[in-house]
Every structure is written in C-alpha cells, then in structure tokens.
TrEMBL record:
Taxonomic placement: Eukaryota, Metazoa, Spiralia, Lophotrochozoa, Mollusca
Biased composition (Basic and acidic residues): 27-56, 470-481, 772-787
Organism from which the protein derives: Lottia gigantea
Gene3D superfamilies on file: P-loop containing nucleotide triphosphate hydrolases, Tandem AAA-ATPase domain
InterPro entries attached to this UniProt entry: ARIP4-like, Helicase_ATP-bd, Helicase_C-like, P-loop_NTPase, SNF2-like_sf, SNF2/RAD54-like_C, SNF2_N
Protein's UniProt name: Transcriptional regulator ATRX
Biased composition (Acidic residues): 444-455
GO cellular component terms given for this protein: nucleus
Length: 794
C-alpha cells in the first residue's frame, strides 16, 4: 500500500493552526481507515503499475525522445496487435508541441483512459496538470481532446466540457479555433462557447446540439453553477436539458481550467462541479497549492475521489504532521516525521499530478531577469506614515493591532503609493457611500483571509445570467423595511467614520499635490521607466492590487497627455512626427484592465497590444486580481509589480502574462517595495515561505500565523533618510539590465537598493563584491556603454 504508518499524528481538533507545536496522537492504523479509502489507494497503485508496464512496452512508438528533442513527429497513444496506430495525435498538431506538452498528453491519456480495453470496463478517473503559467497547458489539452474525440470510433467519446473563469472563456474559444483549423482537417464536431449567449432557451438549444453532434463546449464557472442549480431555473423543460447535458449523464470528458478555484469544498462552485457524473476529469492549474494542504485535498478529491481519504483521515495522516514539523519550536522528531510524510504524499500524488516548473520554458525563451527594487519614500510620505502609526494605527496592545492589521495595511499602502491616494479614497468613498457596504477591489478580503494570505475564488465581473428564467431569490425580502433602516444607519455611520479618518492627514495635503509626481518614489520611478522604454521601443505591463493605484497612475497619464496636446497644437506637422510616443491617450497609447472590463474588450485590447506593428500601444495597467490569469500579453517584455502581494502566486501569475511562449525579447521584471515599510517585511515573509514550498508542490504555504513578535516587526518603520548624518552610501552591484543601470544612476535618490529575485526559487542576493570591485564594474559599464549605438524606436 502507498500509505505509510508514521508515529505521532493528531486529530483535526488538535491541528496546530495557532501557536507552536502540539502534543499529538498516534496515527490511524490501516485497519481504522475506511475501506473505500484503502480500495481507492489500491486501485491507483495497480493503475500506475499497468501504466509503467505499458510505457516500457510502447516506448518505441516515439520517433524522437521528448526529453531531448524539441520536435516530436509522432505520438501514438494506442496501437492494435499489428502495431497499427488506433489513437494518435494529429500530425499537424504534434509538430507544434514542445517535449513537456507531449509528456502532458501521454500523462492525461494514462490517467483518464489508460487503454481502450480499460475504457470499456470502468468509468475512468482524472488528473491534475499542474504546469507553471506560460507552459502552454491550453494547447496540451486541445491536442489531447482532439485526439480522443477524433478517435471516437474506438474511444466512443464525442463530447468535452471545458469550464473556466469568465475572463478566459474567449481565450479558450480562440485557442480552439486557432489550433483546430478546418483546412487542416482538424475540426472535431463544433466548438461552442456559452458565455455570449444571453437567454436560457438559446443556451439549452446549443447544449442539445452539442450533445447530439459532438464537439467542445466552453462555459464559465458561474454560469455552470447557475444552470445546474435546479432552484434557480424555473422552466421544467430547460431544467431537464441542463441536468442531462451538464450533470447526469453529462459529457464524456470534463476540463476545469484554473482548477484551484475548487479549493474549498464548501463553496457553491465546488459543490456544483462535484455533482457531475463524468469521472474523466482534468484540472489545469499553474498554482496547485496556494495556501494549505486542505485546499489541495479538495482539488485532488475532485479528480481522484477518496485517494487521500476523508478530510479527517487526510488531516491525521498528512496535514497535522507536516504542519507540526514547520513550527518554530518543532522537535527534531517532528521535523523527521514531517519530511517522511511529505515524501509519502508526494509519491502518492505522482501518478495523478504532473508538475512542470518554468525551467521547461528557459530552453525555448529569451532570458528573464527579475529585480526587487527598494524604493525610498518621499519626506511627506515618511511624515504621514509616522503620523498614522502615532495616531490612527496605535490601538494599544500588539494583539489588538493584529485584529486591525488589514485596515492598517490598506491605509499605509495608500501612503507609500502617493499621499493623494488618501484623498482619492475619501472621494471614492463619499461617492459610493449611498450604496450599501461599498468595498473597492483591493479591499474584498476579510481580516482572516488577509492574514492567512488566502485568495478569494475567481468570480466573473459580468453577470452570466440576465434572463427571466433564472430566479434571483432574496432571503430578506420580507424585511425590506428593516434592511432600509439598517442601510441608512450604516450610511450615517460610514460618513462619520470617513470624516474622522481624514482628519489626521488633511493638514498635510493641498489641492495641487495631486499633480506632484515627486511626492511618490514609486510613481517617479514608474514614469521614468515608461519614458526610457519609449526610447527603446519596449512595451510595459504594470500590475497593482489596488484600483486606487491604477486611478492615480491614470490621472498622471492624463495630465501628461493634456500637456503634450497643448504643446503639440503650437507645433508643425514635422515637429509632431518627431515627438511621436509622448501622448498618453487611453485606448490607443495605453489600456486599463480591472474587474469592470468586459471579456470582449480584454481580448480585443490584448490583440492590439501584442501587435508588433502597433508601436503606439505601449502600456497596459492591470488589476492583479482581474488580469493575473488567462491572458497573453507577450507584446510586453517589461513588467512592473507595483505592490507586493501577500500571496506570492498573484505576483508570479502576473509575471507569466509576458514570460510565456510567443515572447521574443528578454523579459525584465521590476518589483517595487516601499523601503522600511510593512510592504518590505511582507515580501521578505513570502520569500521565506516560498523557500519551503517544494516539499510537496510549488507555492506550498504551510505556516502563516503571526506571533506577537511578527506583528511588532510588521509595524516597525525604519526609513532610509537622505538627510541622515549616519547614512552610508554604497556603490550598488552593476545589474545585467542596462535600463536598471541607468535608473541606479539617474534616480539614486529614489532607489535605496536592489537585488535579483527568482520568482519560483529562493531569494538570490547576488555575489558579495568589494567596494573596489563594484566601482570597477561600473567603470567598465560606462566604457562599454559609450561604444554602443543609441537604439531608437523601429
């Protein structure tokens, strides 16, 4: 059996979620584990042995080794006794696949189908394709689905359902259209996309046609949940159609894109997806484990029910011992047990979880350089930061601070972005306060989820269901009067709160400050980078968690654009041509994507931005939550992470919008951190967590609870002041990035220090050079630079 008994494990109620290690109980014996759990483990072990034997037998069907050669010309998944191919990847598709994608197809076949003989005997099972962002999971799945459906004569499979977040639905449709071209005879049935269909009668018609004719159906998670919720669809005929086509018996194959959405078994989306009768299920995710092992259990259980046992069994056998070995006061025995259990878990899942990190990209892409830049605060930012800690942020005890950590972080982040963001926030709150419980996008998390670094489930910004056949029930409909009264009370209280919150900073801000770029180190550096990228023809992505940050960036872009327009009116046509690239017109020079951006606009803007002939479109400012997934922006080769995320997977997902297949330039990433602030300490905390993540899978965050010392350190403010008489200025190490080298010279008052960072591995602090070696490196750089020709826009 794969399960391995280990000494001391604990029950769920003893789980060390707070504080240090616990006195833990002995592990459950195999006798106490449910028979279903043992049967599932035994079945998986047998299947893996059969797959291993089969791979040894058919290894000669590959014309080239997928691990050595980037070009594969033949991939046969099953042959007859005469070695004639029965199921094989189309010759046009196989040539487009990288070696790791070829491995992915074989992996999905072995997990979901295994063989035509087994296909007739059982219902199949599923797998998780946990390839890093940018590795082409979409093409891998499209190729696999095409192969299976094209061989329907043998597989008897004709329908595939692809469920994805709303913002990736059109991307799936476009990918299917691009790869399954009719002229290459790759069309398998039809490719249907349901998110653009606005009424249930039309949706039902398309679903019936899809089941009848065969093909691929693409649908958003929210729409799937709503259509399969029998309580929300009143028409009995429609209800029956949705039930039969989507749930029971449902399609032959189900693909769940961004499958970490299913991390919470109590969520409505998870419950809806788990009702589907189809057992052949594939989950795609670039971040399989974002927060804790319980989420991993939920996702694995979707594709391999009972393999990891019940939640209680999983806690006892894996979560508790692994967590207990990560505490600051863990004993040597705890650590030994933790390593042993982590190894067992990894081996158990090796047959149904395929992980490929970004090292698979480096063979085929230009290099990626990633820098963490510590940005000095402006004097007024330092004053406001200290003022907040002295007044609003001081609530007495450290434990009390822990209760309002999220609120303090939000306030302080406004200060280190730009002082005027405090005013923008007040204006926005006043405009929205008449609506009930307004919260902008960067304040959607609760205190608990903020402290725990968790991520809220992806939700669509556009309502999938606007027709009359869906009943939106209001559980408080009988108490509307009471609710109205409560709303008025909340509104009155909120107005009073907003007024009190603004009193502490009002004296430090003037109306003209909204146009002063020099009041923010981050914004000063951002616009300097934009100016330098204009000269060399590089396009830029800017990611921020805060809509207010995007707002103030837009305000400054608008100010620059208006000034340029006024100046250009006085110039001749020839002079205007010479100043090309200085305007900042929204929709032409730059684009903005946040939760309110429609799916169609996202796709259209991405195409304009990625067009290599469109030199004018050179900036994309993006909300991290809205644009960190499912969008290809390889037109840019420079990305700025404007603020650090509590969950490092957010930043990683953002980076891989540009660093992915299709990128032809070296990619440069700049992570901005406000020096000496809470943001810098959060980043350091995330790097420490990432260094432990590879015990099970990438991005595994185990221990995430603040002690009193942690809180005190988070609130400590140690700014680097230019006027500090004890300040010692060191010569920075010469970076490989020429643009950053220029920044270190021209913007040395804003940049305190920098270091290289690998987004998936441990922190790299660079070589320890002496002061003389640093100066010598810069002298050589200056000499080489003077020999280089100036590079202008194409």
């Amino acid at each position: 059996m794969i399960f391995l008994n280990c000494l001391f494990l604990q029950d769920e109620k003893d789980s060390p979620t707070k504080g240090g290690r616990k006195k833990i109980r002995k592990v459950m014996s195999d006798k106490k584990v449910a028979d279903e759990t043992k049967a599932a483990a035994k079945a998986e072990e047998d299947r893996r042995q059969r797959v291993s034997d089969l791979q040894k037998k058919v290894g000669s069907t590959y014309s080239s080794s997928p691990t050595k050669c980037p070009m594969t010309t033949k991939l046969v998944l099953e042959s007859n006794k005469e070695d004639e191919p029965l199921v094989a990847v189309n010759k046009h598709l196989i040539k487009k696949l990288k070696p790791h994608q070829v491995e992915a197809i074989q992996f999905m076949w072995s997990c979901c189908i295994e063989s035509l003989k087994r296909l007739k005997k059982d219902e199949g099972s599923g797998c998780i394709l946990a390839h890093c962002m940018g590795l082409g999971k979409t093409l891998s799945v499209v190729s696999f689905v095409h192969t299976v459906l094209a061989a329907s004569e043998y597989t008897k499979m004709t329908t595939c359902l692809i469920v994805s977040p709303l913002n990736t639905v059109l991307n799936w449709r476009n990918e299917c259209s691009m790869w399954l071209k009719e002229k290459d005879q790759l069309t398998v049935g039809f490719v249907y996309e349901l998110s653009s269909v606005k009424d249930n009668h039309s949706r039902a018609r398309y679903l019936r046609e899809w089941i009848r004719e065969g093909g691929i159906m693409i649908i958003g998670y929210e729409m799937y949940r709503n259509l399969t919720n029998t309580g929300r669809v009143r028409n009995k005929k429609l209800k029956k159609t949705f039930e039969e086509t989507l749930v029971d018996p449902g399609p032959d194959l189900v693909v769940c894109d961004e499958g970490h959405i299913l991390k919470n078994e109590q969520s409505a989306i998870s419950q809806a997806m788990n009702k589907i009768k189809t057992k052949r299920r594939i989950i795609l995710t670039g971040t399989p484990l974002q927060n804790n092992l319980n989420e991993y259990h939920c996702m694995v259980s979707f594709v391999k029910p009972r393999l990891l046992g019940t939640r209680k069994e999983f806690l006892n056998r894996f979560v508790n011992p692994i967590t207990n070995g990560q505490c600051s006061d863990s004993t040597a025995h705890d650590v030994k047990v933790m390593k042993r259990r982590a190894h067992v878990l990894h081996e158990m899942l090796a047959g149904c979880v395929q992980r490929k990190d970004y090292s698979a990209l480096t063979k085929y892409l230009p290099p990626k350089l990633e820098y963490v830049i510590s940005v000095r605060l402006a004097p007024v930012q330092m004053t406001l930061y200290e003022k907040y800690l002295e007044t609003v942020g001081q609530t007495g005890t450290v434990s009390a601070k822990g209760g309002r950590l999220f609120q303090d972080y939000q306030a302080l982040s406004k200060i280190w972005t730009h002082p005027w963001v405090l005013k923008l926030s007040e204006i926005k709150q006043e405009a929205k306060v008449k609506y009930d419980d307004y919260e902008d996008e960067d304040e959607e998390l609760s205190n608990d989820s903020f402290i725990d670094d968790s991520t809220s489930e992806s939700s669509s910004s556009v309502d999938d269901n606007s027709d009359d056949d869906i009943s939106l029930k209001d559980s408080d409909s009988d108490n509307s009067g009471k609710r109205t009264k409560n709303t008025r009370a909340k509104t009155k209280e909120k107005k009073k709160k907003n007024k009190n919150d603004s009193e502490w900073w009002a004296e430090y801000l003037k109306e003209e400050d909204k146009h002063r770029l020099e009041l923010s180190g981050k914004l000063s550096l951002l616009f300097k980078i934009l100016s330098m990228c204009e000269e060399i023809g590089d396009k830029v992505l800017v990611f921020s968690q805060s809509l207010l940050s995007l707002d103030i960036i837009e305000d400054f872009l608008d100010t620059i654009d208006k000034k340029w327009q006024e100046e250009s009116n006085e110039k001749s046509e020839e002079e205007k041509l010479n100043t090309f690239g200085k305007s900042w017109t929204k929709g032409a020079d730059y684009f903005r994507m946040d939760g309110s951006t429609s799916v169609a606009l996202r796709q259209s803007w991405a195409e304009h931005f990625n067009d290599p002939e469109n030199y004018r479109a050179r900036l994309f400012i993006i909300s991290t939550k809205a644009g960190g997934l499912g969008i290809n922006l390889v037109g840019a080769n420079r990305a700025i992470i404007f603020d650090a995320s509590w969950n490092p997977s957010h930043d990683i997902q953002s980076i891989f919008r540009a660093y992915r297949f299709g990128q032809v330039k070296p990619v440069y990433i700049y992570r901005f951190l406000a020096q000496g602030t809470m943001e810098e300490k959060i980043y350091e905390r995330q790097v420490t967590k990432q260094s432990l993540s590879q015990r099970v899978v990438d991005e595994h965050q185990i221990e995430r609870h603040f002690t009193a010392n942690d809180l005190q350190e988070l609130y400590a403010f140690r700014p680097d002041r230019l006027d500090d008489p004890n300040r010692v200025e060191k010569t920075p190490i010469l970076p490989k990035d020429t643009l950053l080298a220029e920044l270190l010279k021209s913007e040395k008052d804003w940049i305190v220090t920098y270091h290289e960072h690998d987004s998936l591995l441990e922190n790299k602090l660079g070589d320890a050079l002496s002061e003389e070696e640093r100066k010598s490196a810069w002298e050589e750089y200056e000499t080489d630079k003077n020999r280089q020709p100036v590079v202008n826009r194409g």
